[in-house]
TrEMBL record:
<feature type="active site" description="Proton donor/acceptor">
    <location>
        <position position="10"/>
    </location>
</feature>
<feature type="binding site">
    <location>
        <begin position="115"/>
        <end position="119"/>
    </location>
    <ligand>
        <name>substrate</name>
    </ligand>
</feature>
<keyword id="KW-0119">Carbohydrate metabolism</keyword>
<dbReference type="GO" id="GO:0005975">
    <property type="term" value="P:carbohydrate metabolic process"/>
</dbReference>
<feature type="binding site">
    <location>
        <position position="171"/>
    </location>
    <ligand>
        <name>Mg(2+)</name>
    </ligand>
</feature>
<dbReference type="InterPro" id="IPR036412">
    <property type="entry name" value="HAD-like_sf"/>
</dbReference>
<feature type="active site" description="Proton donor/acceptor">
    <location>
        <position position="12"/>
    </location>
</feature>
<feature type="site" description="Important for catalytic activity and assists the phosphoryl transfer reaction to Asp8 by balancing charge and orienting the reacting groups">
    <location>
        <position position="146"/>
    </location>
</feature>
<keyword id="KW-0460">Magnesium</keyword>
<protein>
    <recommendedName>
        <fullName>Beta-phosphoglucomutase</fullName>
        <ecNumber>5.4.2.6</ecNumber>
    </recommendedName>
</protein>
<dbReference type="InterPro" id="IPR023214">
    <property type="entry name" value="HAD_sf"/>
</dbReference>
<feature type="binding site">
    <location>
        <position position="146"/>
    </location>
    <ligand>
        <name>substrate</name>
    </ligand>
</feature>
<comment type="similarity">
    <text>Belongs to the HAD-like hydrolase superfamily. CbbY/CbbZ/Gph/YieH family.</text>
</comment>
<feature type="site" description="Important for catalytic activity and assists the phosphoryl transfer reaction to Asp8 by balancing charge and orienting the reacting groups">
    <location>
        <position position="115"/>
    </location>
</feature>
<feature type="binding site">
    <location>
        <begin position="45"/>
        <end position="50"/>
    </location>
    <ligand>
        <name>substrate</name>
    </ligand>
</feature>
<dbReference type="Pfam" id="PF00702">
    <property type="entry name" value="Hydrolase"/>
</dbReference>
<feature type="binding site">
    <location>
        <begin position="10"/>
        <end position="12"/>
    </location>
    <ligand>
        <name>substrate</name>
    </ligand>
</feature>
Length: 218
């Protein structure tokens, strides 16, 4: 019998895919600074905090800016991003998510969101999934971004369960590492080559059942 009591979910790439909106906003910023970023480069920003993403983009463009200017640019990018995500709706929930969450409820498992995004509550509200989580840990509640495990260990603590009783669902390398460092069973959603560190890898929640996950944990 599985000892698992809780499922902890990343938001981006697991429940919704706002990567395209992040890309559009970062690309606009890079273009205004006089250079460009590719979709391939943007892949490396997945699961990385806004501040660290900006540092990577500036390094890519060969720019060194003051902290004050960087704060201003990060805020500008976020404004552009929020313009895009404010138009989101339940139609933006990824395929299979509703069915999977229905199974999670039937199994009596606790749920938490573990996202480094400070916009996670807004996105959950827009897609109508705020009530799907008993705990919501976002960028405003943590001091360290992934791959530090803080976002998931705080989620477990808020749910009143131990890390060994948790399964983390992640699509990013940094997120998978965070879950593993937190002492949790990690399901990677995406490519087995990219997410080799995960305990179980599947293309998406659509291709999984709760039973499959619990069996893999036991």
């Amino acid at each position: 019998m599985s000892q698992i009591k809780a499922f902890l979910f990343d938001l981006d790439g697991v429940i919704v895919d706002t990567a395209i909106y992040h890309y559009q906003a970062w690309k606009r910023l890079a273009n205004e600074l006089g250079f460009d970023i590719s979709e391939e480069f943007n892949e490396g920003l997945k699961g990385v905090s806004r501040t660290d993403s900006l540092d990577l983009i500036l390094a890519h463009g060969g720019l060194t800016l003051s902290d004050e200017k960087k704060t201003e640019l990060a805020a500008q990018k976020n404004d552009w991003y929020l313009e895009l995500v404010s138009r989101m709706s339940s139609n933006d929930i990824l395929p299979g998510v509703a069915t999977f969450f229905s199974q999670v409820r039937q199994a009596g498992l606790k749920t938490a969101l573990g996202s480094v995004s400070k916009n996670a509550p807004l996105i959950l509200e827009r897609i109508g999934m705020t009530d799907a989580f008993e705990a919501i840990i976002d960028g405003t509640k943590i001091s360290k971004g992934k791959p530090d495990p803080e976002v998931f260990t705080k989620g477990a603590a808020e749910l009143g369960v131990s890390p060994a009783e948790c399964v983390v669902f992640e699509d990013a390398v940094a997120g998978v590492e965070a879950g593993k460092r937190g002492g949790m069973f990690v399901v990677g959603l995406g490519s087995p080559d990219t997410l080799a560190q995960a305990d179980l890898v599947a293309p998406s929640l659509e291709s999984l059942t709760v039973e499959t996950v619990l069996t893999a944990c036991s």
